[in-house]
Amino acid sequence: MTTAPETSYDQSIRIAAALLRRSSHVVALVGAGLSAESGIPTYRGPDGLWTKFGEPTIDGWEMFCEDPAAWWEVAIERRGDADAPGGEFAQAIDAAEPNAGHRAMAELEQMGHLSHVITQNIDNLHQRAGSTAITEIHGNRAKVRCMNCGWRGELADISLEALPPLCPVCGGVLKNDTVMFGEPIPRDALDESYRQTALADLFLVIGTSAVVYPAASFPIMAKRRGVPLIEINPHETDLSPLADVVIRAPAGTALPAIVDLLRR
Ligand code: NAD
Ligand code: ZN
After folding, report:
1. Residue 10 has pLDDT above 90, yes or no
2. Band of residue 6 on the pLDDT scale cut at 50, 70, 90
3. pLDDT single digits (tens) 133-174
4. Which one is catalytic: 25, 126, 138, 235?
5. Which of 123, 126, 201, 252 might form a disulfide with 37, Cβ 3.0–4.6 angstroms?
6. Share of the chain above pLDDT 70, in %
7. Mode of pairing for the β-strands spanning 229-232 and 245-247
8. Torsion over CA: 74, 212, 234, 218 (sign)
9. pLDDT recorded at residue 241
10. In angstroms, rounded to a whole number, what is the distance separating the alpha carbons of residues 220 and 225?
11. Which mutation among 9, 12, 43 tests ligand 1's pocket best, with the greatest number of atoms within 8 A of CB?
12. Which residue's CA lies nearest to atom 42 of ligand 1?
């Protein structure tokens, strides 16, 4: 079921809804574009942070490994400082609320039309909108993770009096859960992403430029098994040529439209 380039927006929404209705294990790969309408800038694309300010240096992970206490000190010092590196991004996430796209994804899950979300976003907005079946391959900014046993907890619940903070389960060093440049993706998140990809009988690719690996490989792996792909993105991506249905619209418009059709 391939939509020709001239397929109208309405037609592609209808085809997407029909595919969702007939599928039994739908998996979505989500990127920064889903949260763009919540006021969080994407990295790439015309208004992307990297497009405006250049790509960040890739030393965060090394710095953390060399001296976790020093890393935490700097992180705590920079909190709330818009002029610090990454400050604009952090403030945008702190101020963000889930948008219509996040809410529609939570509704799709509740309606039984969406089995799992693999998100590259770290902003916690899926959970705040009501989604529960989520794998965060790049972590969650509101959480910490143990470098030894993999335990995760809320950053807000962790005492930062002594640095680095230590794991309540095993005493290992705690790191923020967000995956840094150079840091391997946590094994549990990667395993679950591959497991979900293998189970999928329909794959949604929403608001991602699909150039960050391994995330971009999940829809490609599904497609190789003959699983249909639906892309929701206002702009063309590297995955667009592989997609069976392309919805060229913001996620906050397209996803609620699909939910509306499925409710009828
Ligand atoms: P990206 O910045 O590379 O690409 C964003 C994509 O979203 C682009 O293809 C763009 O066309 C599309 N887009 C823009 N507005 C949209 C809208 N309203 N609806 C649908 N799509 C829209 O994002 P990415 O692919 O997720 O890049 C990956 C990295 O960026 C990840 O590692 C992620 O951790 C990080 N990141 C996360 C956040 C967040 O948590 N909200 C924000 C920025 C970057
Ligand atoms: Zn631990």
Report:
1. yes
2. low
3. 999 999 999 999 999 999 999 999 999 999 999 999 999 999
4. 138
5. 252
6. 94
7. parallel
8. negative
9. 96
10. 9
11. 43
12. 32
CA gap 102, 255 in Å, rounded = 9
Contact between 148 and 162 under an 8 Å Cβ cutoff? The reply is no
Q: Which whole-number Å values give the CA distances from 9 to 32, 125, 201, in the listed order? A: 22, 26, 23
**Beta carbon of 121 within 6 Å of any ligand 1 atom:** yes
Interval 230-235 mean pLDDT: 97
> Quick check: 175 and 1 in contact, CB under 8 A?
no
In our burial notation (b when 16+ CB lie closer than 10 A, e otherwise), range 231-247 reads bbbeeebebeebbbbbb
Q: Which residues pair with 29 in a beta bridge?
A: 118, 205
Q: Assess whether the C-beta atom of 233 lies below 6 angstroms from ligand 1.
A: yes
* Closest listed ligand to the CA of 153: 2
Kindly report the backbone phi and psi dihedral angles of residue 77, in degrees, each rounded to the nearest multiple of 5, phi listed first: -60, -40
pLDDT of residue 83: 78
Q: Cα Rg for the chain, rounded, in angstroms?
A: 19
